[in-house]
Amino acid sequence: MKKKFFELIMLIGLLFTALPFSQASAATNNTKATDTSLAKIQKKGVLVLGTSPDYAPYEFQTTKNGKSVDVGMDISIAKQIAKDLGVKLKIKNMDFDSLLVALQTGKVDMVMAGMNPTPSRRKSVTFSNVYYKGGQDIVINKKDAKLYTSKKSFEGKTVGAQTGTMQYNMAKKQIANVTVKGFDKGADLILALQTNKIDGIVMEKPSAEAYGKNNPQLSLVNGHFNLSSDETSSAIAFQKGATSLAGAVNKSLAKIQKKDLINKVYLKEAGSHMETNTVNTSMFHYWKYFAKGIGYTLLISAFSVFFGFILGTILAFMRLSRNKIFKAVATAYIEFVRGTPLMVQIMFVYFGIGLIINLPALTSGIIAVSLNSGAYVAEVIRGGINSVDKGQTEAARSLGLSKSGTMRYVILPQAIKNIWPALGNEFISLIKESSIVSIIGVTDLIYQLKIVQSDTYRGVAPIVVAMLLYFIVTFGLSKLLAYFEGRMKHAN
């Protein structure tokens, strides 16, 4: 039995890992055979752009008419490209290190995020022509301006860079004995710098200048890095082999460059938006961001609690069943889910299953969190049922109750009372753990926190607001659960 159990776990694991790669391989082979990337976009009438809006002046967010909108140089270029193609532009926001995965799995049609077309990236995606050339700077605290004058000053120090970027690898290779810490968002890097967790930030020159201009506590150092043309350039990424789409986009880029729209229009517009963001950086001014974030957090949590409880109940009964197949399947599922991180599960549902069914980010987040919660709820329910004395079952059966009737009227009511505190803890934990859905672009509270940090150039204040909101929600829920627990005890 143990051998079959482990074989089942291995089979499930292989299916989880092999499915995305097999689907991606098939997609790649199809692309090589016939490139219809441009035709498909023109047929559906929508060009989907993937970006990470925390990298001013390339892409960031601002408030227009009370709504959060994506702006920046890259966004302006993307709008012109969509216009030239005769289609609408749809923007999907997510973490930078998820963008190429989203591209390869068909979640987005192209990626713009100040991305450098490095040789390693060219192996997996197709790039457009270069549309902008910048440089690389190191952002430091102004009080340390005398300590750091070039990249050599950081030998033996700790620097930060955005995870998955060329800057991260460049710092490791070109600064001796340096420790490089990766962060998902630019705002996290600035916060780490200002709280002395790192000594400097390796950042693309335009973004470094944007932070320096809008934050008087920061200063810039020219790192004098040894850079190839790819490492000072930005290009648009497409699926590997999407040459027809890349060709059409290159025509738009040529028109933009001929008119010098980037320098004459797009960068000036981005600067204007950045100035607007810093006019009022109070947290109250951004209350709609936090309200939207807490709304999505509660929505995800409510659905996940509901579906997770149903799934957990089914799994608990399967594991308690005398049917060996049901028991083995439930055990394998529970052990596998509890043995893998929630973040990986969310990415698998969104990117892996998304190869077969194109699920929206919100739906993917709810499904992943529900599936994860179900495994933990199952063990709580199973433990509660096992905690009821076996004599209760024998007494009920001797009085003529059926097996199902005994479970329904005798065992479960007592089990629920026993497990209520544990279930409450699981539901409260779920609210906090749901914050990880922000990695796929779900606009929950953590996602909005990052946006406010990026827009206001303030690191700590948005965190404090988010902490208070989480506390209010979880404290309120704990009091509600305690009320019902008291009612149960009173009913005894």
Automatic annotation (TrEMBL):
It is found in: Cell membrane. This is ABC transmembrane type-1 domain-containing protein. It comes from Pediococcus cellicola. Belongs to the binding-protein-dependent transport system permease family. HisMQ subfamily. Residues 1-26 form the signal peptide. GO terms for cellular component: ATP-binding cassette (ABC) transporter complex. InterPro entries: AA_ABC_transptr_permease_3TM, ArtM/GltK/GlnP/TcyL/YhdX-like, MetI-like, MetI-like_sf, Solute-binding_3/MltF_N. PROSITE patterns: ABC_TM1 (PS50928). Residues 294-481 form the ABC transmembrane type-1 domain. It is a multi-pass membrane protein. The chain crosses the membrane at residues 293-317, 348-371, 460-484. Keywords: Amino-acid transport, Cell membrane, Membrane, Signal, Transmembrane, Transmembrane helix, Transport. NCBIfam families: HEQRo_perm_3TM (TIGR01726). GO terms for molecular function: transmembrane transporter activity. GO terms for biological process: amino acid transport. Its main location: membrane. It holds the Pfam family SBP_bac_3.
